[in-house]
Amino acid sequence: MASILKAQRANAVKATHTGDRKGKKKADDMMELDDSDSGEDMQEIEAVPATKNRKNKQRVLLLSSRGVTHRMRHLMNDLEVLLPHVKKDSKLDSKSQLHLLPELADLNNCNNTLYFEARRHEDLYLWAAKMPNGPSIKMHVQNVHTMDELKMTGNCLKGSRGLLSFDKNFDETEWGKLTKELFTHIFGVPPTARKAKPFVDHILTFSIVDQKIWFRNFQMIEKDPLAPNGPLQMTLVEIGPRFVLTPIRIFEGAFGGATVYSNPEFVTPAAVRTAIRREQGKKYNVRKDAEQASSIRKEKRRRAENELAVSKVFA
């Protein structure tokens, strides 16, 4: 009996040794296969570059020049409220040193700039530029109406993100396509903005009419206030502000460089005022010419003095 137990133990030990050897061989074979597969996978991974999701990191520097009026300042405040990714800076002292603006944008970690330039305390120009290499657009701002002035019934959440709506006329011209792309970068609020809120409740519209860009801001209402339990019905209510932009010139660089587009139909406000004064001066000249002609006619109608006149007889 003891000899049988010894023989069973010996067979069990042999079986375990052979199993270990076979397991080691199988493990070694599997490691070799894994190494070869991993090498092929690494080659495939190296062949296919990894794609990263690009984040929308747009920040806009907002500033103005010296000499802005209260209406211009209120317009800037309205834009600052509408765009939570805007960083407002102090006024720029010199109007001739626009080359300093890219450095200011770099110091403020901004890649877009909106610069309001006031001339003669009545003319407002808007520079929209992409930093640091351009392009940049110079526009004349007209028909400015701020939120406080309009007193519209529309309202939106402060810091909410707005949709951008561009007219189809932007895609018909080259300068329109460039302006649309630049405005998308400036007025499009990124979802990762520090002051932005995860709501979309208003829409910014840009329309081209008579070669001018018309800006409007509307609130989106999904339900009719008169029938709150009725079906969903999208309506738009204007909030403000509103203004009109006339493109003057598009430059290749930031606030300078080669001219990409020039508006041949643009007339400066100073030339318009000069023409108005000239028209008013024409009325004065016509009146003076009429007075002079009347005096000449009176001299011609005057009779010659008679020799028997009292003044000559009793002289």
Description:
The chain has 315 residues and is of the alpha+beta class. It contains seven helices and eleven strands. It has helices spanning 2-47, 70-82, 101-107, 147-150, 174-187, 269-301, 310-313, and strands at 60-64, 86-88, 112-119, 123-130, 136-145, 160-166, 197-209, 212-221, 235-238, 242-253, 256-262. Strands 1, 2, 3, 4, 5, 6, 7, 8, 9, 10 and 11 form an eleven-stranded mixed sheet that branches. A hairpin with a 5-residue loop joins strand 4 and strand 5 (136-145). The chain is elongated, with a radius of gyration of 40 Å.
Question: What does the secondary structure layout of this molecule look like, with pairings?
Answer:
Elements: H1 2-47, E1 60-64, H2 70-82, E2 86-88, H3 101-107, E3 112-119, E4 123-130, E5 136-145, H4 147-150, E6 160-166, H5 174-187, E7 197-209, E8 212-221, E9 235-238, E10 242-253, E11 256-262, H6 269-301, H7 310-313
Region (Disordered): 1-41
Pfam families: Brix
Protein name: Ribosome biogenesis protein BRX1
